Amino acid sequence: MEEGRGTDKGEMKHQQENTVDWRGRPSNPKKHGGMSAAAFVLGLQAFEIMGIAAVGNNLITYLINEMHFSLSKSANIVTNFVGTIFLLALLGGYLSDSHLGCFWTIILFGFVELSGFILLSVQAHLPQLKPAKCNMLTDGDMCEEAKGFKALIFFVALYLVALGSGCVKPNMISHGADQFNLQTYPSHSKKLSTYFNAAYFAFSMGELIALTVLVWIQTHAGMDVGFGVSAAAMAMGLVVVVSGTLYYRNKPPRGSIFTPIVQVFVAAMLKRKQINPELMINGDQNGAESGNVVQTQRFRFLDKACIKVEDGSNTKESPWRLCSVTQVEQVKILISVIPIFACTIVFNTVLAQLQTFSVQQGSAMDTQLTKSFHIPPASLQSIPYIILIFLVPLYDKFFVPFARKITGHESGISPLQRIGSGLFLSTFSMIAAALMEKKRRDSALGSGEIISIFWITPQFLIFGLSEMLTAVGLIEFFYKQSLQGMQAFLMAMTYCSYSFGFYLSSVLVSLVNKITSSSSKGGWLSDNDLNKDRLDLFYWLLAVISFLNFLNYLFWARWHSHSSASPTIQNEADGMGLNHYILTKHSKDVVDENIP
């Protein structure tokens, strides 16, 4: 027991020394961190998503009406843009963990994103940077598509926004979560769970304002004013996050996060002929202290990277030949989360449809709410967020404590259970979308009736609940993995799932068009007129894919749960000074003759 208490004190000291204030001095738990510091980051998150969502969710309308791209090309531009944002999150996570730290990465790329919004506003305002005005519905074949310098300015502005937003997103979540010291204060684990729910609440509020107020401004005042308001929102977010500078506890960068990972694979390869040691091992890097730690059985070939062969000499092995136990276990953790990450890609392919084709569905429906007010189709996506701004606080205040009493889990249900519930619900979102589109199309072609836009509500509502479960569950699952100094990069991986999902959407659209087209007839999604397309069949296809993906997830979630070590394995190993396997035999005695 005394040894355990000594370990805890060591961890407390280690944790305190490992976070600094804005001047680089050790942080003070009484002055730095906590929910009050995280609130500034939540403010940035709300303003940032407000700006980017207003652009992304109504971008397809701008591309068709102002830039004169076709429906399928516009849909692919939107999905590629959003996909690029989330792919660039990996760059933001790497730069943060390795070189800049979360705070300075946020500031640097926040200004990059702001410059992109400003350039978009300028491009949308100046007639000489856009094609001549033309009605794509009545004169589609006669309309001039944006090309050359006009297209160049637009795409430069668009991808400045993508670069900035991509690098900012993972660091917002990670920087906010870094304000909670789980090692020193175990009670912060519950607060961290609350923070993740609060982050989604801030996200929902930003989305709601973007999809109502900002989209209304874009529709009635013009896209140039709308893009300008997005720029103003981003500027406000930067002001808020800078205001909390004095209160943050910052995790300094640790150098390249990839080098230790590569070292494990190289060392394991070089010692591939060594016999794996027993699961219960003794000794530390000096061979002077003993202790026990249970190693994970998964990916046991990597354990050879931390075999230290004592051949009688005092030669110190290179870190490319000898790795620590903790280092190897962290690589195992990184590999083991990849299947969980992969299962959320299809989920985000479904999300892509709600930001592209579902908006076009709304455009083909009766948007009139009153005699003088029409609902902008892009504002349809606000429906789930209206519900979620009430549901998320209720979930955190009532469901989590209730479920915690039953399960004993600090988050009510485990992150893996939360992800699975969301993936299951996403299937029904596509079923609802398919049924509604069939009704809309049959009414338009049969009686000529244009049904109310409110028929589209269920698919957005179901997916909103699904996203709350999956997105927050995935963030919490990744952040709580025992990977030292890689939290921002892991947050980036969750956003990377969005990227792959949106890219997969583009591939599916092109593939479905190619397979379903014939010499005399276009594919399901080849026309700019939804009454001629078969969007309902495409939605049914996505429903089937989503359900198969859910079954696949159940397999990998069960595998992960059974193969994972205790989440405290890393702290146990560090606390006992355990760093390497020690083999006291000569190297020639520990060769496995069955390995070539």
**Order of helix and strand elements from N to C terminus:** HHHHHHHHHEHHHHHHHHHHE
Radius of gyration computed on alpha carbons: 26 Å
Assembly type: single chain
The CATH topology of the largest domain corresponds to Growth Hormone, Chain: A
CATH class of the largest domain equals Mainly Alpha
Percent of residues in beta strands: under 5%
Q: How many beta strands in the DSSP annotation?
A: 2
Using the alpha-carbon principal axes, give the shape.
globular
User: CATH superfamily assignment of the largest domain?
Assistant: MFS general substrate transporter like domains
Find the structural class using helix and strand composition.
Answer: mainly alpha
Q: Mean pLDDT, as a whole number?
A: 79
Number of helices: 19
* Weakly predicted, low-confidence segments: 1-17, 279-294, 565-578, 582-596
Q: What's the architecture of the largest domain in CATH terms?
A: Up-down Bundle
DSSP helix fraction: 55-70%
The rounded distance between the terminal residues' Cα atoms is 46 Å
Lateral arrangement of strands in the main beta sheet: 1-2
Total domain count: 3
> The biggest beta sheet, please?
2 strands, parallel
Task: Give a description of the structure.
The chain is an all-alpha fold. It folds into 3 domains: 18-255, MFS general substrate transporter like domains (Growth Hormone, Chain: A, Up-down Bundle), CATH 1.20.1250.20; 262-275 and 298-323, no CATH class; 331-564, Growth Hormone, Chain: A (Up-down Bundle), CATH 1.20.1250. Helices cover 64% and strands 1% of the residues. It contains 19 helices and 2 strands. The chain has helices at 2-17, 35-65, 71-87, 89-100, 102-125, 148-177, 188-221, 223-243, 259-270, 325-336, 338-343, 345-354, 357-363, 382-407, 415-446, 457-479, 487-516, 535-563, 569-575, and strands at 307-309, 581-583. Strands 1-2 form a two-stranded parallel sheet. α12 (345-354) packs antiparallel against α18. The model is unreliable at 1-17, 279-294, 565-578 and 582-596 (pLDDT under 50). Residues 1-24 have a biased composition (Basic and acidic residues). InterPro entries: MFS_trans_sf, POT_fam. The chain crosses the membrane at residues 33-55, 75-95, 102-122, 149-168, 198-219, 225-248, 333-354, 374-395, 456-479, 500-517, 537-556.
